[in-house]
Amino acid sequence: MERRSPLLAYFAAALVGAVLVYIASAGLDPYILSIIAFIGINVILAVSLNITNGFTGLFSLGHPAFMTVGGYVTAILTLPAARKPHLLPDLPAWLAQMNWPFLPALVAGGLCAALVAAVVGFPVLRLRGHYLAVATLGLIFIIQGLATNLDGYTRGALGLNGLPELTNLWWVYGWMLLTLYVCWKLKHSSLGRTMLAIRENELAAACLGVKITRTRILSFALGAFFAGVAGGLWAHLVTLVTPTSFTFLFAFQLVVMVVLGGTGSITGAALIAAILTVATELLHPVEEAVGLYGSSQLLLAVAVLLVLIYRPKGLFGTAEPDLFAWIGKWQGRQQTHSGSKRQREV
Asked: What sections of the protein cross the membrane (predicted)?
């Protein structure tokens, strides 16, 4: 059978998704739309974390820190110039007079997050395993502390509220598509194979001439860019960003999405991110009715334990499912079933 182009399949899926987004935007109530938007944002976060944790084999918990940087930068750039002198009196005059459109502000937020990741990455990424996890977890508290104490720039613990509600399904869907495409192309490129080689055997990769530190920092910064963009989308969806909007608990939830989906699997990370977001939302009324608050986190922990015991590589491992192969197998089974049925009738 002729090999179909992955790019063609991607554009076909993107077109179908655009139609579904149009239908949802026209016919669903704001609460359901917000849940769908959170699904898209979590997909962006899980897939981008997969670049660092899945492709390169780093154990980073720093995504909430990069979301905080991206959220604040985007919020400051999109705030109306008339409100900035009152809310943020220490802002430079040139920045206080700016009122950027949403897209450049999101890109700026992502670039600032990537810059922080690159600067922090030089000392931090020399660590390994749980030492790296603790260091990136500490980055969350450092960024939260800066956001709390620089109240002339960030409004301190009060945060920035009343942000313009700029995020909608189209913005989330567009950035989700871009994240999936970039990660897919990266995984199947020479750079992606270099990252996978570092994850599998760092010493062997170094002996073959792979620049270990440079590749690690690049993966760390690229994941941080999309995390910063997701932070900006989140802030302008809920119209609020505070120093504690993105906590270390959220960092563990993102890691769980990557582990359950399969470390290195883009499809698995995206699918599990969507499932866990919906499941968490559906369990909230159950928690309130029963009075067992936090039971959703308990169920999540049990699910992780079961996956680690019975399927340690996650849902898909490092592989990506071939949709066309699945369709071909399903059609083959249907044809076989129809042929057997006709033979019995004869």
From this structure: 7-25, 31-52, 64-82, 102-124, 131-150, 170-186, 217-237, 249-278, 290-310
Residue 211 counted as domain residue: yes
Length, in residues, of the chain: 346
pLDDT per residue of the chain (346 residues) written in tens, 0 to 9: 344 556 777 788 888 888 989 998 888 888 899 999 999 999 999 999 999 988 888 888 999 999 999 999 999 999 988 888 888 988 888 888 888 999 999 999 999 999 999 999 888 888 877 888 888 989 999 999 999 999 889 999 999 988 999 999 999 999 999 999 999 889 888 888 899 888 888 888 888 888 888 899 999 999 999 999 999 999 999 999 999 999 888 898 898 888 888 888 888 889 999 988 888 888 777 767 766 666 667 777 787 788 778 887 777 777 676 554 444 454 455 555 555 555 555 4
- Domain range holding 39? 34-341
Identify whether 9 is part of a domain.
no
**CATH code for the domain of 122:** 1.10.3470
The encoded tokens of residue 335 equal: 């044809």
1 found inside a domain: no
3-state helix, strand, coil in the chain (%, to 5): 75, 0, 25
293: left (phi over 0), alpha (psi -120 to 50) or beta: beta
